[in-house]
Amino acid sequence: MVRMLKIINTLSGKKELFKPLFDKVTMYVCGVTPYDRAHIGHGRCYVVFDVLYRMLRFLEYRVIYCRNFTDIDDKLLKKAEHEFGDAQRYPEIAERNIKLFHQDMAALNCFAPDYEPRVTTHIPQIITFIDALIKKGHAYQANGDVYFQVSSFPSYGKLSRQKLDDLRSGVRVDVREDKRDQLDFVLWKGEPEGKFWQSPWGYGRPGWHIECSALAREYLSDQIDLHGGGIDLIFPHHENEIAQSESLYQTAFTRYWVHNGLIMSDKEKMSKSLGNVFALEELFKQFDPMVLRFYFLNHHYRGPIEFSFNDLASVQKSYQRLCNLFSQHVCKNNISKDIDLPIFKQMYAFLCDDLNTAGMIGVLFDHASELRENEQELCAAKMLLTDVLGLTLEPLSEKKIHITPKIQRLIDERNQAREQKNWARADVLREQLRQLGIEVQDEKIE
Ligand SMILES: [Zn+2]
User: Fold this and answer.
1) Nearest to 246 by CA among 350, 333, 164, 129
2) Whether residue 410 sits in one domain with residue 361
3) Which residues are near ligand 1, the ion (C-beta closer than 5 Å)?
4) Are 140 and 208 found together in one domain?
């Protein structure tokens, strides 16, 4: 089959034909810091890259997919301190959340990456990497810490298209740090004697950015084909990864940088720190994980999604329609990917055009009645939906709704309003419930 996947490369800002360096595709996606449950933003990111992974496999590439766990970090230490009164018990927090993360990803039908390395089991590789950067003059020690010297890497800022001087003026200066330049970033954080890991620079632990450079090198190569993550990682995280890897290996670190858009709430990024984010676990109580997956894929991966329960509820209805459409036919698994069918080809063309899943789904609904009449088209479409989009298309079970005290109060108030025949009030409460993802169905009041 013709391999014609075009993808927007953040580095060039252009849509480029994807061509791996070798026949085997190397793909790295930044993973989570497992200090808490995965949230909707993680769900979107890893579904997007699961679809990219599946698409490459559909194109019959051999793909090596690596996604890390940042299992040592201030947030983990803080959580362990809070939960156990002992920051050094952070591995227990990480262990628990990694297990739950795997459950959430499996529920979303995401393939497990080929490698899921943890930072804490790769300290020697990280130390070797930092040591080599110091020896090449790209990093320096200062009071037990090690910093990357940004001025030693002239193309710093190329991914986020920022100039060094503009960056300098925007950086907050932390007076406790002994950096030579405010843009320099930490590779190794010094800690008191005996704490964390021993290194040539004394005891300490790695800074955040170095792990991805070291792990990509360890599991993939010094030059990788695809590197993914949310757009919020472009600066500084991915910019720093480039500086570290390219300073050491003198070759373009990543050939195609791919970034997914964020989930927003009232035009603001949903995040843990703003307290406006939903854990996947919570959403799964109200919506089948496949509905959530379908919701993500109804949006182009690069754009933001303004989250609303109303949209999720309407996506649930269209997903159910889709499942019903496909449940009427049993398809044999021997459809050729090169089959010459107009609807299938249109859907496939959208996928090849910067992974436009939303466009592909649009074609599907535009031609639903024709698909019903044409079993070949129907089965070819199903192949794309299951193999590339990763949708199971199993009819949804009646989801048990998780009734919170707030939901119960609204339901009670609404029942009261209906008994009093206060229809206006009942409608207001119905809308409030809908905002929380609850559709109420009324029996007639005599
Ligand atoms: Zn990373």
Assistant:
1) 129
2) no
3) 30, 212
4) yes
Checking DSSP bridges between strand 204-206 and strand 6-9, what pairing results, if any?
A: unpaired
Q: How close is the Cα of 346 to the center of ligand 1, in Å? A: 35
3-state secondary structure of 333: coil
Q: Are residues 425 and 382 in the same domain?
A: no
- Look up the domain containing 409 and give its range: 405-435
Residue 220, pLDDT above cutoff 70: yes
Alpha-helical (H) ranges within 175-308 are 210-219, 239-249, 280-286, 289-297
What average pLDDT score do residues 105-109 get? 98
Q: Is residue 1 part of a domain?
A: no
323-349 residue pLDDT tens: 999 987 888 877 899 999 999 999 999
Number of structural domains in the chain: 3
The CATH number covering residue 42 comes to: 3.40.50.620
Ligand 1 mean position, distance from CA 96 (Å): 22
Please report whether residue 34 resides in a domain.
Answer: yes
366 alpha carbon to ligand 1 midpoint, in Å? 39
Tokens standing for 317?
């209805």
Beta bridge partners of 264: 269, 306
Dist. CA 54 → ligand 1 center (Å): 21
